[in-house]
Amino acid sequence: MTDTAWLDDATIYTLDVKTFYDSDGDGWGDFRGLIEKLEYIDDLGVDCLWIRPFYPSPLRDNGYDVADYYAVDDRLGTVEDFSEFTDRAHDRGIRVLTDLVFNHTSIDHEWFQQARRDPESEYRDYYLWTDDVENAYNTFNIFPEHEDGVWSYDDVAGEHYFHQFFHHQPDLNVRNPEVREEFHDVLRFWLRQGADGFRIDAAHPMLMPKGHDGGTLEEPIELFTELKRVVSEEKSEAILLAEADDQPEKLPYYFGDGEAFDLQFNFVMNAHLTYAIGIEDTWPLYRAHEIVPDVEGVGKWANFLRNHDEWNLLKLPEEAFHHAREAFGDDAGDSWIFERGHRLRLAEIYDNDLDRVAMAHSMLLSLPDVPVLLAGDEIGMGSDPSLHEREAVRTPMQWDDSEYAGFSTSDPGNVHNPVIDDGEYSYERVNVADQLDDPGSLLSQVRQLVDARSQCPEIVDGIYSVVDVDRDDVWIHRFDHGDNLLVCAHNLADEPREVTCAFEPPEDVSTAIVGEGDYRVDGGELTVDLGGCDYVWIRADKWGKRTPKPGEVLSLNR
């Protein structure tokens, strides 16, 4: 039996421990610092944290090159610190998801070191080797700008090993039952330290053909149904979140008819949603709704505006893909990486138009399924294009305008990445402290939106539908839930817009939940009057019973 209903109305906030807050002045964020900042996360209103890899790693790929699955990088703390962090998060009603990378390890992992040294070692078959690379299975590499292919020669082993990612990240042989048992032991270990579930990195590549013969599991989905069985047996409310950037029609497979992943990142919606808001046109949203599969009853989508990698545009149609490459790139032309996306923060994508950033968050938080917020986007942080590739969007959290953004008291030379200290996104101009008590700030608006979502059960349990209007720069959707109706209206344009749509309840039973947009009801129609980049959520009782205004309590007697 599982008890994952908590996921239905969850809002997830994602961060990297090493760049969030440094408690001991060594230049690295740590779990003690994260414990200190739980109050901020709690006040933001989110109820689930996804924390990115914190394991020992050479950090050639931001920790996604794991060298030990059972430990914490000593610069970030200890396993005991992690356990205390989960305890303190749980005290606040916040669940914790961790990243697990099972597609590959670092070449520094002891499994690979033993495998390369001893062909008779049990670990040799943990990886995929060939002594006949000319006749071995070949395919594309995920980082074509850096890797010539998927086979690299190891002079210690005297053979080539298979890697779909960087050459320092050899793929694990998921066909080996002993490897899968290792996965299960890792899951159990972190659940016992307090984790509430896992984001499984690179779920799609895990199922792709691998090795000399290009083989896969006989029933590939069993790889993930096994993972789900293990986490459910260990902790009934634990969930699995998939990073599966596959073709839209193939995405339902990862849910395994409700027996594999509980949640899956919606890369299709991400590309279309963020693009639509940027071009002030709703057609990408209509297209996304057409091509994203309906997975009701088997799983949920995790929607997001930006993540900690590049803004991946591959799911856009070809013409829009090329337009987005040119229209949203930086002036120097170096924001484009891996031939698929921009390494810009959300605020930069929208030219630091914070009204548009706020409206984008309203769109995200008013959509069905599970929203995921990227740490720093709630205050409008930017990127550092001088940093290598994806590291541009992985700079430390900007807490205040004191030296080093209040992130650390360390000498700047000791940090993993420097803070942004010049230009319009510098910590002196963009930081938490300046926005915390300003009711008009981006941070305050995001907090209001997260709170509004938590007060709207219609989003979780209602019937969702898109409302067609006569403008292509205004998006309206609604949720019908029993007696209640929730309408969410968004103006993607910079200029004011007024649109009208059908609306059954009379005006005196409706109220604005969040947003500055105005509205009126007359003769069975709703007219919304929205300023540039404005939004409003309107709730009404469909049967004419007046709904409470904000702060008002009505009798429950009918």
UniProtKB/TrEMBL annotation:
SMART domains: Aamy. GO terms for molecular function: alpha-amylase activity; maltose alpha-D-glucosyltransferase activity; transferase activity. Keywords: Glycosidase, Hydrolase, Isomerase, Transferase. Gene3D superfamilies: Glycosidases, Oligo-1,6-glucosidase, Domain 2. CDD domains: AmyAc_TreS. Residues 14-414 form the Glycosyl hydrolase family 13 catalytic domain. The keyword Isomerase applies. One of its GO terms (biological process) is carbohydrate metabolic process. SUPFAM superfamilies: (Trans)glycosidases, Glycosyl hydrolase domain. Its EC number is 3.2.1.1, 5.4.99.16. PANTHER family: ALPHA AMYLASE CATALYTIC REGION, ALPHA-AMYLASE FAMILY MEMBER. This is Maltose alpha-D-glucosyltransferase/alpha-amylase. It comes from Halalkaliarchaeum desulfuricum. The gene is treS.
